[in-house]
């Protein structure tokens, strides 16, 4: 008879109290280990394996954003007026129709606010003190040459009235 076993009436062997405690402790330890997440690969291997992909994706994103930033700068170079309108509530087909009615020399683009802010800092006439108040929502930006200012603003106002776009504010 094993040391942790005890004979009871009927000749059956059962675990002693001390043995039962040991079995319970081992079972609890196994249960706790099952709750603790363990990585399939070592942490170092996971980090080193991802590092290259992140840098490549980051470099590609940076390249795209730099290209857009340069486009915005070139639009600001030729513009005397820059204004934005909120994009909420305007469908893509409506935007395309509006683009077709814009006069020559007027550019219309959806640009990330951060990129507009970076570009505006380089242009004194577009770097207003309150530009931050315009940079909180999704916006479409108009870049207008001097001789097309009145025509562009009137076109936008007429388009809003015609489409009854109360939510779109300039």
Task: Tell me what you see in this structure.
This protein is of the alpha+beta class and about 170 residues long. The protein is built from 5 helices and 5 strands; from the N terminus they run ββααβαβαβα. A 3-stranded antiparallel beta sheet has the order 3-5-4, with no helix packed on it. A two-stranded antiparallel sheet has the order 1-2. β1 and β2 form a beta hairpin. α2 packs across α4.
Which helices and strands, and how do they pair?
Blueprint: E1 5-7, E2 13-15, H1 17-35, H2 43-77, E3 81-86, H3 92-101, E4 106-110, H4 113-120, E5 139-144, H5 149-163
Antiparallel strand pairs: 1-2, 3-5, 4-5
Helix pairs in contact: 2-4
Question: What's the short story on this structure?
Answer:
The chain has 170 residues and is of the alpha+beta class.
Per DSSP E runs of 2 or more residues, the count of β-strands stands at 5
Helix coverage percent: 40-55%
- Treating each run of at least 4 consecutive H or I residues as one helix, how many helices? 5
Structural class: alpha+beta
Report the sheet with the most strands, covering strand number, pairing sense and barrel closure: 3 strands, antiparallel
Mean pLDDT: 76
Strand content: 5-15%
End-to-end separation in angstroms reads 91 Å
Oligomer class: single chain
Strand/helix succession: EEHHEHEHEH
Low-confidence stretches: none
Order of strands across the biggest sheet?
A: 3-5-4
The Cα radius of gyration reads 34 Å
Shape: rod-shaped
């Amino acid at each position: 008879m094993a040391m942790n076993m005890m004979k009871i009436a009927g000749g059956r062997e059962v675990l002693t109290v001390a043995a039962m405690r040991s079995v319970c402790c081992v079972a609890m330890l196994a249960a706790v280990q099952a709750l603790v997440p363990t990585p399939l690969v070592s942490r170092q291997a996971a980090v080193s394996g991802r590092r290259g992909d992140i840098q490549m994706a980051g470099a590609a994103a940076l390249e795209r954003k730099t290209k857009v930033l340069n486009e915005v700068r070139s639009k600001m170079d030729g513009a005397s007026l820059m204004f934005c309108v909120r994009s909420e509530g305007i469908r893509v087909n409506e935007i395309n129709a509006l683009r077709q009615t814009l006069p020559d020399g007027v550019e219309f683009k959806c640009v990330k606010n951060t990129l507009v802010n970076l570009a505006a800092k380089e242009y004194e006439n577009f770097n207003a003190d309150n530009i931050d108040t315009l940079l909180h929502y999704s916006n479409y930006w108009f870049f207008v040459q001097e001789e097309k200012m009145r025509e562009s603003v009137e076109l936008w106002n007429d388009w809003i009235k015609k489409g009854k776009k109360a939510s779109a504010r300039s």
